Amino acid sequence: MAIAMGWHKPDNVAGSSAPAIMVGLFVATGGLLFGYDTGTINGILAMSSFKAQFNTGYVDDKTHEFDLSPSQISIIVAILSAGTVVGALFAAPVGDWLGRRISIIGSICVFCFGVIFQVCADAIPMLLAGRFFAGVGVGSVSVLVPLYQSEMAPKWIRGTLVCAYQLSITFGLLAASIINLITQKMNGPPAYRIPMGLQLTWACVLCLGLLILPETPRFLIKKGDKQAAGLALSRLRRLDVTHPALIEELAEIEANHDYELALGSASYRDLFVGTPHLGRRTLTGCGLQMLQQLTGINFIMYYGTTFFTSAGVKDPFLISLVMNVINVISTIPGLFVVESWGRRKLLIVGALGMACCQLVIAIFSTLANDSQSSLVAKLLIVFVSLFVFFYAASWGPVAWVVTSEIYPLKIRAKSMSVSTASNWLLNFGIAYGTPFMVEEGSGYAALGAKVFYVWGAFCVLAAIFVYGMIYETSKISLEQIDEMYERVAFAWKSKNFEPSWSFQQLRDDGFADSGIPPPEHELQPSRTTTTTSESVQTIHTDSSSPNESQSEEDKIIQQMGMGNIDFSY
Questions:
Q1: How far is CA 509 from CA 248, 275, 481, 532, 552, in A?
Q2: Cα–Cα distance measured from residue 471 to residue 285, given in angstroms and rounded to the nearest whole number
Q3: How far apart are CA 470 and CA 220, in angstroms?
Q4: Which residue, 371, 415, 58, 375, is CA-closest to 260?
Q5: What is the DSSP letter of 530?
């Protein structure tokens, strides 16, 4: 499969990556839940049947027809994001307690509970309750799916598999646009209840599939179940549990976890003050996720149909469908270049491309007069399409990739939950506040298309943030990323990083409870840690010849002629 799509497993990697790729792609379809829900509400808000059912007496000043007020629209859209914040924060303790796989299943069940409420709703309060519970499920899934993928994927294709989560979100948006286009002209509640109810279809399929998938080996090592971790890794790599390559990979994961635990505890406080550089890594993840929202993408995804209508675009449902087609197609180039270009370059190019598109829209909308409204509408469609292209190929998928990679195993679930919660918190703010920024009337900012000045400025800020804060994590294992944060002081120097040692070697040579490695190792203590004299005394191995210092596993591997095989995958 990977070869057919242009990806090639390195020749020196033992076993098969096909099982891990298929598992990763299947789990990635959890993104359909969020994508479909977002796309559904975008179209449903513009349906006359929905307005007739949920209207509470508000009359639009322009059309003089019954409608939903901006405040009602805001809360209906934003309440899902409020639920996702809660779900993202709960994902960490549940994921560390029950495991990644079981927690995803539980999250999907909560999502289904919320969908049933939405389908049965005939007034706004019950609809809000359903969207909140659906949000709790979506928020938890958005943490656990990239976490599951990054912990079971081979490093040579890890970024691409996590990108597939974003691709699934775009497919969900596209599917919702198609369904909305089909049902919008129906009379009565079926027009909006059919799109809502169809969310249950894939949720059930995903739950059933997860029942037979393995737990991630890294979680099982974290829980101390080495035997189960070996069996899970055996399924994912298609190797016997006694194969030297599998034994070596498992030993490296275990040694890395031991090293991390030696550095200290794994509480929420350690996310900000722990070592190595956990505060910087947490800030990086939260900043990246917040800036993903501040690009303005969800302004288009949540309110695209209503915004295009107010901008004078004919057939806004069709234009919204076209935007979602572009969103899907544009995500695919990102899957191919995320490994070859790397995370940093792709994010910087994407941010600058989005900024140019948005500032063009804002400037032309400011300078145009009423007689040029038709030209502005066409220009709006063209540059919004280009904006969606740049976002879908870069910030859409890669933000999830980076935040799934940069954290150590001991705090990975907690850190991902906090960074993802920051994403959903900004999502809530944008979803709730945008109508007040864009719409006209008393108490509203009436920015209209000028709101793109705001999004464009944040895209410029995003490019600067990536240059200064995002480390290049492609083509190295999750364990080697820890070494990179220890040895590389500045993000812009990370592209030249070359791993030089293994955690298994460090453990075998000996290190103290403080986690400070022996001086003969290339890795030096973090500046934020205590000095050697203040810490527990470091254990040193006796000087001996290279052959004597080799472990029994190393000698066997050397005798088998497998010394040139890279076991870090």
A1: 16, 21, 21, 17, 14
A2: 11
A3: 29
A4: 415
A5: P
Contact criterion met (CB below 8 Å) for 15 and 237? yes
Highest mean predicted confidence (pLDDT) among 354-358, 480-484, 528-532: 354-358
Average pLDDT value over all residues in the chain = 80
In 3D, which of 123, 134, 106 has the Cα closest to residue 37?
Answer: 134
- Residue 24: what pLDDT? 87
In angstroms, the CA 285 to CA 146 distance is 13
Assess whether the previous peptide bond of 276 is cis (omega < 30° from 0): yes
> Which pLDDT band holds residue 356 (cuts at 50, 70, 90)?
very high
What span, in angstroms and rounded, lies between the C-alpha atoms of 369 and 296?
25
In angstroms, the Cα distances linking 312 to 45, 305, 308, 360, 447 are 17, 11, 6, 18, 16
Residues 397, 166 contacting (CB under 8 angstroms): yes
Instruction: Give the predicted TM-score (pTM) of the model.
Output: 0.73
Phi, psi of 66, rounded to the nearest 5 degrees: -65, 135
| Dihedral, 556, 561, 565, 567 alpha carbons, nearest 10 | -10
**Quick one: which of 207, 104, 106 has its CA closest to 147?**
104
Q: How many CB atoms lie within 10 A of CB 541?
A: 11
The C-alpha atoms of residue 218 and residue 405 are separated, in whole angstroms, by: 13
Q: Which two tokens stand for residue 465?
A: 């943030």
Question: Tokens for 68?
Answer: 């939903």
Give CA–CA dist 189/178, Å, rounded.
18
- Residue 276 to residues 83, 270, 381, 478, 515: CA-CA distances in angstroms? 32, 10, 46, 14, 10
Please tell me the distance from the alpha carbon of residue 444 to that of residue 181, in angstroms, as a whole number: 30
- Per-residue pLDDT tens digits for 257-279: 887 777 666 778 888 887 778 88
d(CA 149, CA 167): 14
Task: Let me know if 223 is exposed, middle or buried by CB neighbors in 10 A (0-12, 13-18, 19+).
Answer: middle
Report the chain's C-alpha Rg in angstroms. Answer: 25
Backbone φ/ψ region at 313: left (φ over 0), alpha (ψ -120 to 50), beta: beta
The one-letter amino acid code at 324 reads N
Distance of alpha carbon 312 from alpha carbon 445, whole angstroms: 19
Q: Are 296 and 351 in contact (CB under 8 A)?
A: no
59 φ, ψ (degrees, to nearest 5): -120, 130
H helical segments located in 341-393: 343-367, 373-393
pLDDT tens, position by position, 419-436: 989 998 998 888 888 878
Q: How far is CA 98 from CA 16, 162, 234, 281, 555, in A?
A: 28, 22, 21, 25, 38
Q: Are 249 and 13 in contact (CB under 8 A)?
A: no
